[in-house]
Amino acid sequence: MSLKVRFWGVRGSIACASPDHMKYGGNTSCIEVEAGDHTFVLDAGTGIRNFSKVILERDVRQTHLLFSHTHWDHINGFPFFTPAYDPKRSITVRAGHLKHQGGVRNVLSTQMHNPMFPVPLEAMQADLTFVDFEAGEDFDLYGDVKIRTAPLNHPNGATAYRIEHKGKSVVYVTDTEHIPGKPDQNILGLIEGADMVIYDCTYTEEEFPEKIGWGHSTWNEGMRLCRAANAKKLAIFHHDPEHTDDFMDKLAEEVREEWSGNFIARENMDIFID
Question: Sign of torsion, CA 217 219 225 230?
Fold first, then answer.
C-alpha cells in the first residue's frame, strides 16, 4: 500500500451534531494520510478528536500536522488533540500562510488563551515543532515522502498540499474560491496526474453566485480541474452545513452521472491508493 486516506471530518464552516447529518458526518475538516510508516494529518477541525484515539491505540509517536489555513473550522479541534499532551509524542505543525503574520504557533496559542479556552498551549507536553513556510514551497520528508504546496484563493490565505509516496499522490485543495471561466493555474499544476484530489465543494453551481467572496468552490469546478489535469478521482469535500444527508444522497447520484471519478467524502471513509 502506497497511501491510505481516512476522512475524520468532512463538513465545512461549523460542526453539525444533528440527525440530518449522520450518514456523511458532521465533524469539520480533518484527514489522515498514511504514507508507509509515516502519519500526516490535514487540518485540525473537530474530526481530529476521534482521530486522537486511533493515534494512541496504534501508539504512533510521530505525526505531521499540515494546516490549509487557520479559520475556526480547521483549527478548533486542536485543543482536543490528545497526543499533543503526551510527552512521548512528537508533532510537527506546518502552515503556509502565516510566515509574515506572527506564525502558526501564535494563532494556535491565541485560540487556547484566556478567556477563549481554559487550557493553554503550554500545557501540551509533546515535542511540538512549529514550521512556517511560504505556500508554493516543496519539502522532502524521510527520503520517500515529498510534499508539494500551492497558494489558494481564500480570505486570509490558504495552502493546498500534494503528498507523494512511491509514485502515488493525494492532493488536498481547501479552502478555495474559483473565478468562473478562469481555471486556477496553481491548482492545475499541483493536481496534474494525481491519483486523488480532495476539493472544496461547499456550494452547488446554483448557490455559488450568492456566495462570491466567501472563499469556496463547487464540485463542478473541481471536476473540471481534475479532468483538465488528468487526475483520476475527485473527493467531494467540505460539505455545507445546510446540505443534509438527503441532499447529499441526491448529489451523490448527480455527480456519479457526470463523471465516474467523482465521489462524496464521508466521515470514517477509507481510500486506499496502491
Answer: positive
Nearest-5° Cα angle at 229, 136 to 99: 10
- Give me the number of domains the chain comprises: 1
Residue 13: CB atoms within 10 Å: 20
**Digit-coded pLDDT (tens) for 18-62:** 999 999 999 999 999 999 999 999 999 999 999 999 999 999 999
CATH number of the CATH domain containing 222: 3.60.15.10
Tell me the C-alpha distance between 146 and 125, whole Å: 28
Query: What domain range includes position 59?
Result: 3-273
Q: Report the 10 Å Cβ neighbour count for 4.
A: 17
What contacts 186, CB < 8 A, 6 or more positions away? 136, 150, 151, 152, 160
d(CA 5, CA 269): 8
In angstroms, what is the C-alpha Rg of the chain? Answer: 17
Closest CA to 99 of 43, 152, 137: 137
What are the pLDDT digits (tens) for 158-204?
999 999 999 999 999 999 999 999 999 999 999 999 999 999 999 99
Residue owning grid cell 506572527: 102
Look up residue 238 and give its DSSP letter.
S
- DSSP SS3 for 257: helix
Q: Pick from 1, 5, 2: which is nearest to 263 by CA?
A: 5
Q: Are 64 and 81 contacting, i.e. CB atoms less than 8 angstroms apart?
A: no
Compute the distance between CA of residue 33 and CA of residue 88 in angstroms, rounded to an integer: 21
The one-letter amino acid code at 51 reads F
120 C-beta neighbours (distance < 10 Å), count: 12
